[in-house]
């Protein structure tokens, strides 16, 4: 069987680097100097669905914001 569902069935977990994957690279600076990143709601939905379906999800970053 060579369809995509069969090929994807071997996936056991998801790992993402947040920078450039969940963000567009913009950093927002608040009045108090805190750094914030905006994330696409569709990415959050996909992560939630993965978790609800039993997949471990790791999101890593080198940033401090």
What does this protein look like?
There is one protein chain. The protein has one domain. With 65 residues, it is α+β, with helices and mostly antiparallel strands. The chain is built from 2 helices and 4 strands, in the order αβββαβ. It starts with a helix and ends in a 5-residue tail after the last strand. The strands form 2 sheets. Strands 1-4 form a two-stranded parallel sheet. It is elongated. The mean pLDDT is 86.
Task: Give the mean pLDDT.
Answer: 86
Question: What gap, in angstroms, lies between the N and C termini?
Answer: 44 Å
Low-confidence residue ranges: none
Which structural class do the helices and strands define? Answer: alpha+beta
Shape assignment: elongated
Strand count:
4
- Number of discrete domains: 1
Order of helices and strands: HEEEHE
Number of helices: 2
Radius of gyration: 15 Å
Strand-residue proportion: 15-25%
Helix content: 25-40%
Give the strand order, joined by hyphens, for the main sheet: 1-4
The biggest beta sheet reads: 2 strands, parallel
Task: Kindly list the characteristics that best describe this protein.
65 residues, alpha+beta, two-stranded parallel sheet, two-stranded antiparallel ribbon, 2 helices, 4 strands, elongated
Brief overview, please?
By secondary structure, this protein is α+β, with helices and mostly antiparallel strands.
Q: What order do the helices and strands come in, and which of them pair?
A:
Blueprint: H1 4-8, E1 14-17, E2 27-29, E3 35-37, H2 41-52, E4 57-60
């Amino acid at each position: 069987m060579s369809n995509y569902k069969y090929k994807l069935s071997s996936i056991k977990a998801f790992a993402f680097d947040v920078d450039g994957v969940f963000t567009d690279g913009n950093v927002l600076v608040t009045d108090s100097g805190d750094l914030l990143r905006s994330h696409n709601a569709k990415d959050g939905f996909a992560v939630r669905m993965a978790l609800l379906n039993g997949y471990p999800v790791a999101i890593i970053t080198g940033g401090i914001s």
